[in-house]
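Supplementary Text 2. Reproducibility record for the structural model of the 387-residue chain.

All settings were left at their defaults, and a single model was retained for analysis rather than an ensemble. We include the record here because the model underlies the residue-level annotations in Supplementary Table 4.
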Amino acid sequence: MNTKGLDNKYIAHSYSRFDVCIVSGKGSTLFDESGKKYIDFGSGIGVTAFGACDDEWTKAVTEQLSKIQHTSNLYYTEPCAELAELLCEKTNMCNVFFGNSGAEANEGAIKFARKYSFDKYGEGRSTIITLIDSFHGRTITTLSATGQECFHTTFAPFTPGFKYCPANDIEYLNKMITDDVCAIMFECIQGEGGVNNLSNEFVKEIEKIANEKDILMIVDEVQTGNGRTGKYFAYQNFDITPDIVTTAKGLGGGLPIGAVLFGEKLKNTVTPGSHGSTFGGNPIASAGAISIVKRIDDDFLLAVSEKSKYIKNEIAKWKNVENISGMGLMLGILTNKDAGEIAKECLEKGLLVLTAHKNKVRLLPALNISFTELNEGLDILKEVIEK
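Retained model, structure tokens:
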């Protein structure tokens, strides 16, 4: 039985997979079982920030493998501490909690936003406002935080304590600020919800409300973080200072890792025994992440922005394109064709792209994708969209 047959027989059917088995790759060029080549415009949904089998990442991970692969969090490890320092230096945040995924990071953010409020104000101040079309994870609590009704069906009862505001609706947001609210949680660009940009005015209103009411700002940077939008974190495009930032995906370069970054208000909120994660801050995942974070400097971020501008300028010339949203190398293309059909046709021609809802093609290429790979992929995408 081949890989697809084994998968269909033995793996729970939680994914509608494309009809391809990826076996190897280098950079943004991948290969399937038959040796067919694909240009990768998805980077594992924003995970392989430096592409497949990046030399520096591979070296960092394999060197750590020969030292120690795991200890419990009862002990100190060098990679974990160094990574935390790097993240705080990039963001001016105060300290970090490490977990294994974006969903776990968002769980931690929710948990400690409520703890901060409880410690300071007592019971009855635990509601978190999130945005319609947001996506914060697939655990019961992060599904509850997710502002999409399609996720609020099968798995009830859901965790209470969330209410949902339309993105960019300042008047509606202000009406939702009641005495029970402890935090506002948002993505600067809603990825799974359709690559929807928040307006600068709306984000600034969140900041104003947060400062006036001691309501925490939680920014979900699971997909938008680690250089994806042309800044280290997307919120830096809006000149705000969040109280909590979550991240994952591109941080690990391909290994599971998530992080919750705490600002000044929350630097002492996490106390021994209040939270934990068996694999959080794992030395191997942390070593890989260090090799990623160290390379995302101002020159690198400028190159991300330049590639973004190049892609937008090219796509804007194409027939059947109605709109381009997003920032940096997180882009959504609205066309008058079905996004799923576009993705399927691209796959057949040797290009991997993503979708967001029914009507948007989503691009999340590796941040260091070469212009040769970029142009090869754009040629295929243009052919399919203009068809």
